[in-house]
Amino acid sequence: MFTAFHLAFNEIWRNRARFLLFGLVVALITLLILFIAALGEGLGSGNREYLQKLNGELIVYQDTARLSIAASLVGCDTRASIRSVEGVQDEGPIGFSSATVVVDGTPSLDVSLIGVAPGQPGEPPSIEGAGLARKSGMETVIDRTVALVVGARVGDAITIRTVQGGEDEFYTLQVVGISESRKYSIRPSIFVPIVAWDEVRAKARQGAGTEDPACNVVAVKLEDPSQINAVRQRIQERVNGVEVVDRKTAYENTPGYTAQQSTLNTQNGFALLIGVLVIGGFFQIQTLQKVGQIGMLKAIGTPNSVVAWAVLIQIVVTTLMGVAIGGLSSFGLSLLMPPGIPIIFEPRSSVTAIVSILLMGPIGGLVSIRYSLRVEPLIALGLG
């Protein structure tokens, strides 16, 4: 084994420019795969983030909506029936729409406009400032992405634009709090009281919000989260016209989520396959260039195991060097990305991608190792 290490590192040092080039190729492949993984996580998070972090275990839809939030409409009577079911601690209406934040008279950021009941499930906790106070107050809690992009802070007033009756309408909202990132439908979110939401949301005709408007879905917080299946079944049986699911099922049924993730996973798989072929091709070319050296080693009695280990060590060291360069480059580039670009380096997916790349080197180099073992000394030296 010592001989294999000695041969491998000596060759790497004597041909450091060539191995550095191989390492940079691996680094570019690493950068590509990590960014595809981060983009997939960012886009997926942009679709599911609000629902995934919802402070309630169950989400109630209209039964005919087929788990489509946009098609669901849950009335006040239904909410009262849900609240009376045994095991339900609290419930909160949630309404979804869209708006545009206007800065200095210019549309600056498209956002998800989410209506919630102050202090009830659905309202996100504020990491700065306070929560919403009144159902009809013209105030808002914005998520951190909105704060970064438009430069808003607690106490500032922001202007939003919605379309009502074919006309642009502008509303001023007071920022009372800032929450963690709570994206929905690939857009950052602003949260307003449910009655104010009913007034300012996009709709076919203008009109003030009602005192207790209908909502798209209802978030349900349980007294005992471990009884989620029993309470879900209870709500289904006792409340007419509803379908009840957990948060995971809810966000997996948001429009385009499953197809989007499948597409990105397929891209990642093809990137890994291309990586294996490219790395294998590079080391195969390198092996062909040193057939004479391998033949000489075998002619003086070097066993096949030493030759194989030397080639494998070179592949592993080059791959490690490339992954290190590519990983650091990916992290550095992510710091330069503007906050509106959905790139998230989630630890589990990033580690999975890095481990996959580290395995690509030896897998791609199997052909070159096999070729090295088949080199005949006399033929390689031109004496056969």
Tell me the layout of helices and strands:
Layout: H1 2-14, H2 16-52, E1 58-62, H3 76-83, E2 88-103, E3 106-116, E4 126-129, E5 139-143, H4 144-150, E6 157-164, E7 167-179, E8 189-193, H5 194-200, E9 217-222, H6 228-238, E10 242-246, H7 247-252, H8 257-289, H9 291-299, H10 304-336, H11 347-364, H12 366-373, H13 377-380
Helix pairs in contact: 1-10, 2-8, 2-10, 2-11, 8-11, 8-12, 10-11, 10-12
Strand % is: 15-25%
Arrangement of strands in the largest sheet: 2-3-8-5-7-6
User: How many discrete structural domains?
Assistant: 2
**Portion of residues in helices?**
40-55%
Q: What's the order of the H and E elements?
A: HHEHEEEEHEEEHEHEHHHHHHH
Oligomer description: single chain
Main beta sheet, described? 6 strands, mixed, barrel
Please state the structural category. alpha+beta
